[in-house]
Amino acid sequence: MKRKTTSRCFFLAAFLFAFSLAQAQTTLIIPQIVDGGAWQTTIAITNTSATQTGVSLTFFQNTSGGATSNWNLAFVEAVQPQELALPGGSTLFLHTLDTAAIPTVGWGQVSDVSGAVVAYAIFTQRAGAALGVGTAPATAAVSRILVPFDNNGPVTSMAIANPTSSSVTINVGIRTALATTQPSAITLPAQGHISFDFPTKFGAAVTAQSGLAEFYSPSGSFAILALRFQSGALTTSPVYGVTGPPIIASSGSGGSGNIIEGAFTISKTNTTSASLGPGTGSVTDLIAGDFASYSPAEFQLAYPAATFGPCSVLNATYPIGGTAPYDPDSFLDAGTIDISGPGFSSGATLMKIPSLSGPFYDYVSPTGSTLAYGGTYVISSSGGTQVGPFSNVSATLPTSFTVTNWADITSVNRAVDLPVSWSGSGFDTVTIGVTGSTQTSTTKNGASVTCVVAASLGTFSVPHAALAMLPAIAASSGATAGQLVVSAFPGTPTTNVGTSQTLTPMLVGGGQVNYGNFGPHLTVVKSVSIQ
Fold first, then answer.
1. Is residue 350 a part of any domain in this protein?
2. What are phi and psi of 50, to 5 degrees?
3. 427/303 same-domain check
4. What CATH number did the domain enclosing 224 receive?
């Protein structure tokens, strides 16, 4: 009986000791290890406590498809990395061999039983007489990481490691001065690894751009390391593990799910003269919009790579009877949308118009009714079958707007800049759009130049380098047409692009509308030839 008691006490003591070690043990991730092919990785491990502690290093090398296998990584110091005894208050440097002609790539983890060990990696690249060196700390795996990037001259590269025993899906969000996009999610298998440079992985969204990328997993954890390369030199780019919900990437568990945008507009448009304001005569009043669902590729196409200062060019060719490649997959039902403001009686609503792709919304002006210049209008909804409720989303129309050289513009010469001047009040931004559309027996082509500038300029010349990308159109006829569209908006230029988030209700099936706004504007339109 005594022996049983002694055995039980020994078991409990051993269990409690093991439990205490498990509680104290920490694991830090080195998301990138590379050795060979002129690359060497040095790992620096520091014991911040006063007493000796045990440290274990394990490594995984890339195989294929993001998978890895165990890697018996050798060091110049000829140690057993899985069984290191690190004295208190000391640092150990371990150097990979760099003897192989072809580099081996993977990732590593540093575990210790005290929680007092920190580590970092030093990456050395030898290219002839040049020597590039960068460092990066070993970090804990987290579910959300922000990565600043700069591809204007330098190129940002990064590595992601999944240290867990399950596959992980990582949603991606990218924000530059031009646009916010959500590329396809990255899925890594258990203990998986991937490395890439930003332009190759994310394409036009980041090429020659700088900004912020966000990586978020709704149900897993991962670690990231970033490096910046320029003219043969490299340095480390800091990354930031953060908490809270994502601010750029999708929060959904679907990873590569569609991007939802709520785009509503209220406008007064003049197609017969250059002015809008009290007493300017007959104009077209419009309130319209939709909640559209785009694939990441469709959404990205609205933010083209061809830019000329504040101007961008969009060009698309597609089959007759087909849809433009930047059109959404579907429209979502938001129920009944109420509208209030000057000229509307209580209980007024937007008309919900059904289509094969889902409903969109429109306002048909009653006879004799007009929207008020400078008037504030509000839309609200109690929600529909796909979009949840929203309330008190407002828009205030500008007071007046005139394109002062409107009569002088009868055609667009693609070889010279196109000057446009304006005056008016109640707006902060002016957009100038020149569009050209052509059609053959089998295809349609649409091209547009859009410039977004501050209203305070009073004048802006659309650069001929952008205009040169439009098709030549002698005169508008049927599907062949050229148009000049100039609009005045309240708000700064950055609030009038597809990244606005003033109308982002929850979705009934989970998640949230990614971007949306209710945009007011005064617009003048005319047909033009394009030479």
1. no
2. -90, -5
3. yes
4. 2.60.290.11
Residue 525 CA: distances (Å) to CA of 118, 272, 281, 357, 506: 64, 8, 15, 29, 36
Total tally of structural domains belonging to the chain? 3
Give the residue carrying structure tokens 């208050």.
89
Q: What gap in Å lies between CA 133 and CA 473, rounded to an integer?
A: 55
- The C-alpha atoms of residue 78 and residue 373 are separated, in whole angstroms, by 80
* Domain stops at, among 125, 140, 155: 140
Say how far apart CA 480 and CA 488 lie, in whole Å.
27
Give me 35's structure tokens. Answer: 């050795």
Tokens representing residue 511 in the block: 């998640």
Task: State the residue range of the domain holding 226.
Answer: 141-256
Q: Rounded to the nearest 5°, which phi and psi values hold at 77?
A: -75, -5
Consecutive sets of 10 residues in the chain, 531 residues long: mean pLDDT of each?
Answer: 34 34 66 93 95 93 94 93 92 94 95 88 79 86 94 94 90 85 88 95 89 89 93 86 83 60 92 80 86 79 71 83 76 94 92 87 72 95 93 95 94 96 96 90 86 94 94 74 92 54 81 87 93 91
* pTM greater than 0.70 (yes/no): no
Run of H or E residues at 466:
helix 464-467
Cα distances (Å, whole numbers) of residue 517 to 31, 496, 514: 39, 8, 11
